[in-house]
Amino acid sequence: MPRSVDVARLARVSQKTVSRVFNNEQYVSDEVRGRVLAAAEHLGYRLNNAAGVHYDEFGNLTRDLPVRAAPGSPLDLPEGASATCWVDGLTVLSDADVLATYEHPHFGRWPAITTRRHGRGRVTYVGTVPGRALARALALWLAPTPVSGWSGLPASVTAATGTSPGGRRVHVVHNWSWEPARVRPPLPLSDALAGAPVPAGRAGPHRLALP
């Protein structure tokens, strides 16, 4: 089975460039993009080879569907884990492991989440838009130790971390509740909106903070 490194070698580019092409990212010239796609076509490289699954159809959802962990799955799914918006009709091609399935007489024939080891990592495919409980459980399995350092957040609070165009580390903290919530920053921060230091503090109802 061809790998991304094989495509990179044939196209005379880095694996990062191959990833950028298949993720449709910028910073790749048309000439290089064409070389990568031609190499992938020649080798028969497909992303679904790495994932071990493909889908032929999907169904829109008019209501959320319950999702349960598959037998032997490492996922610890809570009550209320659900799929929203749509369901991909996934077909397992090879040795991909099914992590979760839908509780539904029709959609239950397809896996909701699969994973497969590939190279030095793994490819995990989520065939739906996960509800919050499912997304949280999946994130805890993928990254048991929080990368951003935010921990112990109330149920109504989300925190995302990224890098600004200027190279600064940016933390976006949002309280989705009508009630105030208290959060503790992982390190001393300053509020980009208020221009004030952010100690362990309070996020007001439906308040967005950009420390």
TrEMBL record:
Record keyword DNA-binding present: yes
GO terms assigned for molecular function: beta-galactosidase activity; DNA-binding transcription factor activity; transcription cis-regulatory region binding
Keyword rRNA-binding tagged: no
Keywords: DNA-binding, Transcription, Transcription regulation
InterPro entries on file: Beta_galactosidase_Trimer (IPR013738), Class_I_gatase-like (IPR029062), HTH_LacI (IPR000843), Lambda_DNA-bd_dom_sf (IPR010982)
One record GO biological process: carbohydrate metabolic process
PANTHER family assigned: HTH-TYPE TRANSCRIPTIONAL REGULATOR GALS, LACI-RELATED TRANSCRIPTIONAL REPRESSOR
Name of the protein in question: LacI family DNA-binding transcriptional regulator
Annotated source species: Nonomuraea phyllanthi
